[in-house]
Design brief:
Layout: E1 2-6, E2 9-13, H1 23-34, H2 37-44, H3 48-62, E3 67-70, E4 73-76, H4 78-103, E5 112-117, H5 119-136, E6 141-145, H6 152-157, E7 163-166, E8 175-183, E9 185-190, H7 202-207, E10 209-213, H8 222-229, E11 235-240, H9 246-251, E12 256-260, H10 261-268, E13 273-277, E14 285-292, H11 299-311
Parallel strand pairs: 5-6, 5-7, 10-11, 10-12
Antiparallel strand pairs: 1-2, 3-4, 7-14, 8-14, 9-12, 9-13
């Protein structure tokens, strides 16, 4: 065994550490504090015979009596006194950095929620999340980024994001998901559009010029796939990378755009937009929260997922 004193602290190492029973360190600490086999047994919840047996193993491990029975109790040997600070430091580190973290309430800690979310989903979801965290966990911070869909599975696995929110059908094995909200798609155009004055028909929709949200290199949208199955197509004259860019463009042109309902609702008043049901049969747009299986059992992850889910239990539509 090698014992050193570095920066005022004792440290020790043993060549056969893999064979050393680290549970004996708690017994050593209890004996050094109580000076009593009975007291140490009570402190650790062990029987006195079990404690005596463990003391025997510890003496063999250290090749030293460690504690000698006297009328004043179990008196530590010089070696025991020398290594006691190092053992106490090690146990205190475990208690402070491992056990206290395990038992600490997530709401009382200072954490960062790393969230992958796009602009359209964030329009409705993010304000609620931030508002709730400020009320129940004021030390938390939130960092958001719209990760590229192709990179998101790797980023979740690597822990670069705690959660992802959206309709991310590219996420498969290794991830869990939980439904938050459902929505429909709506068609928007400026109210003074010269050709669109009444309820939007399928003919109107297909004849119009469209502005669309499309990421470079990304797959065809769900609407494009639905139209393709029907043998139909839109005339697309503008592509932008974010849904939130579409309303101001539509407000200043004769283009139409298809956006999630909550986006249409948010911008209809300020931009003087007409909002119509999408005249193409499509499944609802569902927003989920996604997480990697590495975080599934984590206490903090479970807490924040539950908090987000509760925000939307009474509001299943957007």
């Amino acid at each position: 065994m090698l014992i050193q004193k570095l920066d005022g602290l004792y440290t020790f190492s043993m060549p056969d550490l893999p064979k050393f029973d680290l549970n004996l360190l708690t017994l050593f600490d209890a004996l050094h504090r109580t000076r009593s086999v009975t007291g140490a047994a009570q402190q650790l919840g062990l029987s006195q015979p079990a404690t005596s047996s463990a003391l025997g193993r510890m003496r063999r491990q250290f090749d030293d009596p460690l504690f000698v029975r006297t009328p004043q109790g179990m008196v530590p040997t010089p070696l025991a006194d020398e290594i006691a600070p190092a053992i106490q430091d090690a146990l205190d580190t475990v208690r402070r950095r491992v056990m206290e973290r395990h038992t600490a309430k997530p709401a009382d800690s200072a954490r960062t929620l790393r969230l992958s979310i796009n602009d359209a989903s964030g329009l409705t979801v993010l304000p609620r999340i931030v508002s709730k965290l400020q009320r129940v966990a004021p030390q938390w911070r939130v960092e958001t980024e719209a990760a590229h869909p192709d990179d998101l599975p790797r980023a979740l696995e690597a822990g670069e994001f705690d959660l992802a929110i959206g309709n991310l059908y590219m996420l498969g094995d290794g991830t869990y998901r939980q439904k938050l909200l459902s929505s429909n798609y709506k068609v928007i155009h400026r109210r003074s559009h010269p050709r669109l004055r009444s309820a939007l028909t399928l003919h109107d929709f297909l004849s119009a010029e469209h502005a669309v949200m499309r990421r470079a290199g990304g797959p065809a949208s769900l609407l494009e796939q639905a139209l393709l199955k029907r043998g139909q197509a839109r005339k697309i004259v503008l592509s932008v990378p974010q849904f939130l860019l579409l309303p101001p463009v539509v407000a200043e042109s004769d283009l139409v755009a298809t956006v999630p309902e909550h986006v249409a609702r948010a911008f209809a008043g300020p931009y003087q937009l007409a909002v119509w049901p999408l005249p193409v049969p499509m499944a609802e747009l569902t927003l989920y929260q996604y997480w990697h299986r590495r975080n599934n059992a984590d206490t903090t992850s479970r807490w924040v997922r539950g908090l987000i889910r509760q925000l939307f239990t009474q509001d299943q539509r957007i």
